[in-house]
UniProtKB/TrEMBL annotation:
<keyword id="KW-0812">Transmembrane</keyword>
<protein>
    <recommendedName>
        <fullName>Unsaturated rhamnogalacturonyl hydrolase</fullName>
    </recommendedName>
</protein>
<dbReference type="Pfam" id="PF07470">
    <property type="entry name" value="Glyco_hydro_88"/>
</dbReference>
<dbReference type="InterPro" id="IPR012341">
    <property type="entry name" value="6hp_glycosidase-like_sf"/>
</dbReference>
<dbReference type="InterPro" id="IPR008928">
    <property type="entry name" value="6-hairpin_glycosidase_sf"/>
</dbReference>
<keyword id="KW-1133">Transmembrane helix</keyword>
<dbReference type="InterPro" id="IPR010905">
    <property type="entry name" value="Glyco_hydro_88"/>
</dbReference>
<keyword id="KW-0378">Hydrolase</keyword>
<feature type="transmembrane region" description="Helical">
    <location>
        <begin position="6"/>
        <end position="27"/>
    </location>
</feature>
<keyword id="KW-0472">Membrane</keyword>
<dbReference type="InterPro" id="IPR052043">
    <property type="entry name" value="PolySaccharide_Degr_Enz"/>
</dbReference>
Length: 395
């Protein structure tokens, strides 16, 4: 009798483990039936926004590994997801929804945003759980883009984000990705910190923040870009200045694009660095457009037409192009690029409004995910792109 019970218990555990593996695969297959049927951009916008507010309250966990079998073991070992990954997922959703509520009186979405803020910050306006990595700076930036709340209420959290960045400044004056990786500079960090540094510096009169953001971008331009093509490597070593990882990693271009265009957007027209960053915007726009595919997407390796399309790259570069179109010299080509990107993203949106086929989380320098699925980061930038202040004239 004992052996029978033990046998049934083992079978039950095995069954649960198999279900944990099989159910997500089945649900992905089911969700992709009739994918890409959206024709009207306003309907698409409302659909992706509804998913965005839902995910802001309960953000899908992004896997650290590419493991699709025995996933339960990853869960038990704590290798399934990490908080640092979640910061930029949540930030993107919040940025997108911040854009949406500027153009819509939707009280439910505003209330949903307030509930999210209450889950992250205490009554003193500081983090409930203090972040340890600079990834959190992009979430702090997203809070600063909410024009219907009192931003100064969260000043303690914003100050904390600035202090966290300062703690990650290396000996040569640029910001590290992680304290234990002090010899490397990652392209991701430009997207994580530069928009926040400029917005925070302008709002609270800290010129050193703006100086640091510009230094982070310009130093990367000097050491981390492919000569003749102006696309970033994944990282570079600060002593040897040797670039590391892949030149043309799609989301790497996306991180550089976000950091550059949002930092440029935040600067007043008369600021001394406005023209400096504008030169970089023009140069990067021309470089990135070269690698946009005919159907409007960028691939996960932008330099290879044979590699898979990546929705996260396409959404972030689409956002970049839409904003870069403010510059007269490159306006027309950027508008065409942004429109093509939007049309592609509509074609890879599931019928429930979730944008599909984004590359999963990167494992290490030069070690990239081969899973392509939903990603809140992509969802947020699609919403953000559709609700930018001049989007109605373009897309």
């Amino acid at each position: 009798m004992i052996f029978q019970i033990l046998g049934l218990l083992i079978l039950g555990i095995v069954g649960i483990v198999i279900l944990i593996d099989v159910i997500p695969i089945f649900m992905d297959w089911l969700s992709r039936i009739h994918i890409g049927r959206f024709q009207e951009k306003q309907i698409w916008n409302k659909s992706i926004t509804n998913v965005g507010i839902k995910w802001l309250q309960s953000t899908p966990k992004i896997k650290v590994t590419d493991q699709t079998r025995l996933v339960a073991i990853d869960m038990l070992q704590g290798n399934y997801t990490k908080n640092a990954i979640q910061y930029w997922q949540e930030a993107s959703l919040l940025l997108g929804l911040a854009g949406y509520v500027k153009n819509s009186p939707d009280k439910e979405i505003k209330q949903g945003i307030i509930r999210f803020l209450d889950s992250k910050f205490n009554k003193q306006g500081d983090w409930i759980n203090k972040p340890k990595h600079v990834d959190a700076a992009i979430l702090a930036y997203a809070v600063m883009k909410l024009d219907f709340v009192d931003i100064d209420r969260y000043k303690a959290a914003l100050d904390s984000a600035w202090e966290l960045i300062r703690e990650h400044i290396g000996e040569e004056g640029s910001v590290t990705y992680r304290k234990f990786m002090k010899d490397y500079r990652y392209v991701d960090t430009i997207g994580f910190i530069c928009p926040f540094l400029v917005a925070y510096g302008i709002r609270y009169g800290h010129e050193e923040c703006i100086e640091l953001a510009v230094k982070q971008i310009r130093t990367y331009e000097e050491h981390g870009m492919l000569e003749g093509y102006y696309i970033p490597s994944h990282a570079y070593q600060i002593n040897s200045k040797v670039p590391l990882g892949l030149f043309g990693w799609g989301r790497g271009l996306g991180w550089f694009a976000i950091g550059l265009i949002d930092a440029w957007n935040e600067l007043p027209q008369e600021h001394v660095y406005k023209g400096v960053l504008e030169t970089s915007v023009k140069r990067f726009a021309k470089a990135a457009i070269q690698f946009q595919q005919e159907q409007g997407n960028w691939n996960w390796t932008v330099t290879r037409g044979e590699s898979r399309p990546d929705s996260s790259t396409t959404a972030t570069l689409g956002w970049f192009m839409l904003n870069a179109s403010q510059i007269t010299e490159i306006s027309e080509e950027c508008l065409v690029s942004a429109k093509k990107a939007t049309n592609y993203l509509m074609k890879v949106t599931r019928r429930n409004g979730a944008v599909d086929f984004s590359q999963g989380d990167t494992k290490d320098i030069g070690v990239y995910s081969m899973l392509f699925n939903i990603l809140p980061f992509t969802q947020g930038f699609c919403i953000r792109m559709m609700n930018s202040h001049f989007s109605s004239k373009v897309i």
